[in-house]
Amino acid sequence: MVEYGEIRVVYRGGSKINFRKPVISNDSRFLLCASGESVKVFSSVTEECVHELRGHTGQVTGVLLRPSNHLQVYSCSTDGTVRLWDFTDGILVKTYVVGYPVYSIYASLNHKDVIFIVTPVQSDKRTELFQLVAVNLPQTPDQLVEARDLSAVLSDVSSNPSTIAFGRGGEYLASVNNLKMEIYFFKKNKSYSFSLKEYTKNGGKNTFTCVACHPKDDCVATGHDDGKIRLWRNFKQKKEYTYSTLHWHHSAVSSLCFTPEGTNLLSGGVESVLVQWRYNQENQKDFLPRLGAAITHVTVSPDGALFCTSHSDNKITIIQSCVKVSAVIQGLVKGENVTTGLLVDPRSKALVLNGRPGHLQFYSLQRDKLLFHLDIVQQEYIHEAGLEQFEVVRAAFDASGLWLATVEERKQKSAELELNLKLWSFDEQTQSFVLNTTVSAPHEARITAMCFSQAADSQTTTLVSASRDGHFKAWQLGLPAHTDDEGPSWSCDFVGAYHGLVPRCCCFSADGSLLAVGFQEVVTVWNPTSWELLTTLSQPPGDVRNLCFGQLSCSKYLLGSNNKKMSSVAIKELLQTPAHVLPATSFLCSMFAKSLLISVTETREENKHVDEEMESEKEEEDSDEEVETKISRPEQEAKAVQGGESTAPTLTKTQVRELRRFWDVAGRRPPSLLERFCTISGVGISPEKLQE
Q1: Are strands 144-146 and 91-97 parallel, antiparallel or unpaired?
Q2: Contacts by 147-155 with C-beta closer than 8 Å and gap 24+?
Q3: Which fold has domain 7-115?
Q4: Which ranges carry the WD repeat-containing protein 75 second beta-propeller domain (predicted)?
């Protein structure tokens, strides 16, 4: 008996750590960042996650150090709450219920017991319209507090936290959105707005992307879509404002940040370069290049000792005063396409999939941390639109995790597909994989599947690759041909095919004694020792998509799936029925499996019915033959001559019956096939008559 149980989540990881700007503690020991529905606290030295602050039920949209207590932080979420944490001990101090989704959070020393949040405008049905509101935090000992005393500050603001900044400790704030900047003065309770034209004279876009305020001077820095940075001054009087322009970035400026003393301005963008501008000496600037991916956020520690950049590849880089990188906190890299699928490294139990361009990433779900990136392509990636570069499209491990096979391809315009098959061996010293063999053009077309022989005690290691060129190839690890060679390498041992069909998938049995290869709708089973085709298995309509042998006591079974869509009314009705009114899943699965089986009784009855039909047809044939003997050939010829032209012989009932059977088969093909049959055989009967 099989005991059924509920599916439970064992590990969960891989959330974004670059979604919002990270925060560095006052002593520069800890780094905090939003990660899914929690806040992660990392050590800035060891890169390890020391605490995970859990409690929110929605996406965490902001993290902010509490101005009055440097050991506490606020976090806001789309669940409509703001939570106060003691991040050194990982303890929840208080929960403030706002009642509306919160998309960003701000605070200043000038506003005690008040925070500023961005929420949707409730009177407007559009989700694009947001407002900045002030929230008075009640001072009560309760842990759960209602904080619904809200007052509007600015309307029509952006939900991006990088577009709002406080200046001079909270005397004023600057907000940018699209082509407009608005500066609000708290004491005057008055705001000034400044607008730009959409395009410059050179065709650059003036759209605002981010803003930062100088901590001591009345200066506001804004980033723009065309890569320019503007420094705004004299904005306390709207008609007297001035601005100067800085330009180094060739694309949009994603983030700006002043250092605590205001001596430097930091900027970042898609160039993967951190730029440090000297304040009031903007011609002097320093660069920290090759940070690996586009910069999305820039922040500075309160003491100015550490800089921090977030990147588009879900990475946070900790930098010592724009001099050198001191630590890298890497999250799960989520590319556009996971062409390799999800793999598990048998040795480290790490999740393996596409990472940075041309790389495989090894991610530990237990530790929720990236272990390392393996450079497969081993070429510098060039950030240029439309440039075709090598991509990792396939990967497979052997049972022990000591061998890794990868496939990289590149398709350029008006050029043939470039393919490379690479075999990697695990190095115990470096605890990583080292390239062993490279096979250029292993197939003539794209590789569709790869698999290793799963037998851990096998004397030989075998890899099978299948391709759209209609062949599968077996690669074996052989000993070096000469004693001077460095070690064993891989070579092709066998090339197989089946009636010109395209192989889509392949799989070895648990003991390595069988190899199953799916050729479109046919499954072939081979002997890997002699490479003899043992048998073929028919598959229902649709190409075989996946094959898998069972394990342990189920090793005698071969499971397969195809890409044929099920056109069944019962299944559609089943999927559309609410889950709470359906019976147990185990009951439905057993019924569905039984419905796919063919009853032995029905098969016997069908065979019996066919036998009865054949006996009846035989009796009719005997009767027709007796009638035909009574008509002589001369009489038939005379009738033909009287018509003035030769006519085809008259069909008997048996012949008509046989032609009807043929029509049932040939009628599914083009009509010309049946017409040719009637013409060649000399039968004087039309296809239309057969249909009657």
Answers
A1: parallel
A2: 147/82, 147/96, 147/97, 147/98, 148/97, 148/98, 148/99, 150/98, 153/116, 153/184, 154/182, 154/184, 154/191, 155/121, 155/129, 155/131
A3: Methylamine Dehydrogenase; Chain H (2.130.10)
A4: 342-566
Locate 688 and state its tokens: 């239309």
Architecture per CATH, 162-330: 7 Propeller (2.130)
Query: Is 397 in contact with 345 (CB distance < 8 Å)?
Result: yes
Contact 318, 28 (CB under 8 A): no
DSSP string, 317-376: EEEETTTEEEEEEE-----S--TT--EE-TTT--EEEE-STTEEEEEETTTTEEEEEEES
Q: Which two tokens stand for residue 508?
A: 């070895």
Q: Are 268 and 286 in contact, with CB atoms under 8 Å apart?
A: no
Coil, strand or helix at 393: strand
Cα–Cα distance between 412 and 387 in angstroms, integer? 8
Q: How many CA atoms lie within 13 A of 646 on its CB side?
A: 3
* Percent of the chain as helix, strand, coil, to the nearest 5: 15, 40, 45
Domain boundaries, the chain: 7-115, 162-330, 332-442, 447-570
619-652 in b/e form (b: 16+ CB < 10 A) is eeeeeeeeeeeeeeeeeeeeeeeeeeeeeeeeee
Angstrom CA distances, 401 to 352, 436, 460, stand at: 12, 15, 15
CATH topology of domain 447-570: Methylamine Dehydrogenase; Chain H (2.130.10)
Fold agreement (7-115, 447-570): yes
Cα separations in angstroms, 265 against 12, 235, 261, 270, 317:
38, 19, 10, 17, 18
Could you give the CA distance from residue 650 to residue 308 in angstroms, rounded to a whole number?
A: 95
Give Cα 611 distance to the centre of its chain: 57
What average pLDDT does the segment 236-259 reach?
91
For the entire predicted model, the pTM comes to 0.74
pLDDT at 192: 92
Distance between CA atoms of residues 8 and 1, nearest Å: 21
